[in-house]
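<instruction>
Derive structure tokens from the sequence
<entry> Chain with its tokenised backbone below:
===
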Amino acid sequence: MRVNVTVNGRPESVDDVWEGESLLYVLRERMGLPGSKNACEQGECGSCTVYLDGTPVCSCLVAAGQVEGREVRTVEGLAGGEKLDPVQEAFVECGAVQCGFCTPGLVVQAHALIESVPDPSDAEIREALAGNLCRCTGYEKILDAVRLAASRKAAL
């Protein structure tokens, strides 16, 4: 089947998609967007989080056919060309990136949080990121990055 979808603001068509193929697979393997990571394939780790019609979802749980006519925004789509989004900048600046496997999903989820709650409390940050697992950082630097990004976005 052919899937027509808007990805990061651009209309795309993907041919020969089989009904059981995940959005994650299509993004990574067919569209060359490797930002979203394939870790658990069960929606437990959050490494594959993308926006689907403005809502963060685990792309490993979304069948590619479900995105027909819809809009997907990946971690690659947060940046404005060569300029990183403030959340991406904050993750780098705060050292919240170690192995990098969880980072794309955390960045997308943190971005969504700051869009809906411009000045989140630590409890709100922890709640929003609860579905994203990291095995390297201990989360403190991630929390620092979200706080920094929120303060910078508020200053804009």
Q: What stands out?
A: The radius of gyration is 15 Å. Strands lie at 3-7, 10-14, 49-52, 55-58, 71-73. The chain has a mean pLDDT of 95. The CA atoms of residues 21 and 64 lie 6 Å apart.
